[in-house]
Amino acid sequence: MRIEFTPAGIYLPAIGLWLDPAEQRDAAWISHAHGDHARALHRTAIATPETLEAYAIRFPEAENLRALAFGESLEFRGARLTPFPAGHIPGAAQLLIEFEGERIVYTGDFKLRTPLLGPQAVTVPCDRLIMESTFGLPIFHFLSREEARERICAFARECFDWNLTPVFLVHPLGRGQEVLHVLCEAGIPTAVHGAVARFLPLYESRGTGFPGWTPYESLDTLNGKALVAVHGFRRRIEASGRNFRTAYVSGWAALDNARARAGAEELIPYSDHADFNELLSFVEAAAPREIDIVHGYAEPFARILNSRGWKARAQTAPFGRAAAIREADE
Ligand SMILES: [Zn+2]
């Protein structure tokens, strides 16, 4: 099957399907609800039920939504489409496209290690793999779920010992709820910024509890509580003159300059993306004939794969991003 990598997204002309397109399209697969993938209001959007629920929060006017649960298949214009867990955020899915005997997998954003919340990713053997490589350099090595849990709780307790407010700077969908869940399970009272709180029903309706969280109201009501907030909130709390310490929970926290860039005292390198070794393991398990790499360190990662005998190409023209801290999706 021909695959076109265009400035508007990835296109499969044989079946008229776009993968995470940037602009409105007739038929689009949405891998997950982060803003750099669920980017436009499409005429027909196909995604998992969780992704569609979050998509509808972003685009309340959305109609023609086709929900496809993990493992369920849709016959679509001569192809069979089947989503599998991507281990990234709730509902995040890889898509297996079977067409005329060929198996193509589009990963969207994914990670292999067990997530703090939600199902673990699976690796689907395929002929062609379109994969992300946000952290496709050997310097990126992330904490396990258990290590991340310990670091998050230890940081909060240490802050309380010093009479400081622990503030976690997170992505509002995914990492925010994971950090909150860890704190709640540990019995640490936590206030939650509205940008993070608005996605809690998505988790709660599927059985994930956040016992004891309270909505963030003001800096004066934070005594004895941790705060889960989005990155921009740091400036606000800084200006208040309040005693606090910030932790930055992100894959980018693995970089030497992350402390300065994120403006955080504590760096916790935990991500909802695969680290370098996970990316390599994924390729080995999927064993594709050809690999197209999109997002992140696509060119160096393609070269690394080529040196290991894989036929890999970086599709950087429309997809390349500066290797910088991306607050939209990290
Ligand atoms: Zn994402």
Short description:
By secondary structure, the chain is of the alpha/beta class.
Give an overview in words.
The chain has helices spanning 49-58, 145-161, 175-185, 194-197, 200-204, 233-239, 258-262, 276-286, 298-307, and strands at 4-6, 9-12, 17-19, 27-29, 44-47, 65-67, 74-76, 79-85, 93-99, 102-106, 128-133, 165-170, 190-192, 213-215, 226-230, 244-249, 266-268, 290-296, 312-314. With 330 residues, it is of the alpha/beta class. It has two domains: 4-139 and 272-314, Metallo-beta-lactamase, Chain A (4-Layer Sandwich); 145-268, Rossmann fold. 48% of the residues are buried. The model is unreliable at 318-330 (pLDDT under 50). Bound molecules: zinc ion. Zinc ion (ZN) binds next to loops. Zinc ion (ZN) binds at residues 32, 34, 37, 88, 109, 329.
